[in-house]
Amino acid sequence: MKIKHNNTTYTIPKPFDECYFGANPSKEMTILNPYTNDSAVLPAFAVAIYDTIKGAEHTEDYKIVEQGINWFQKNFVKQYYTLLD
Asked: Helix (H, G, I), strand (E, B), or coil: what is residue 22?
């Protein structure tokens, strides 16, 4: 699946293209790192991927965690370091 945001086209990997990205996947949202209280602004589709990563951590599905982290490292580097590193 491909999503365009701010003149950039992002390729969403499977299984993340099956996530619900909301009615407006480009809507920007602020996410708080629960451990550091630092925040990052992400489009809704990236928030859905972030939420999937966090859920996969809880269920110990490390294949999905790794896939999501790799995607964040490639597409949202600054936000990755704020939220997931």
From this structure: coil
